[in-house]
Design a protein that fits this description.
Length: 154
Amino acid sequence: MNQEEIHTDMTQYVTVMIGGQLFGIPINKVHDVFMPDSITRVPMSVSEIQGVLNLRGRIVTAIDMRELLGLDKRDQDAPTMAVGIEYKGESYGFIIDNVGEVLNLSDESRETNPTNLNRNWTSISGGVHRLEGELMVILDVEKVLGAMLSKIAA
């Protein structure tokens, strides 16, 4: 009897904490992890846009992930961290609480969004992974930025 090799597709995720919840962003979507020096508020922008910042000569739109997810505002004294994303030729920074580790997870262990997951979250989630003792919500970058761009255009 021949033993068949089982090939499992894996995805690497950069883990981030936002409001005490673990999220994962596919590593192929992440270009930078950084601590912004200062963020300049943009007048009349939607509330999820925290402002713009300069990252090595590039103008980056800072998106407040807590606001987008309907969570409480961050403590003003907490250090600001961001995950840099490129989308349709533009640079964005997802403002998060902190960055964790990189996890290599099987695509087979990925599940659809639970029915009781907050509606704001399911609209930008690409599913979940059940880890030991916690749920990691996968942030779908295209859904996050697609939703933001449609709000801005409205």
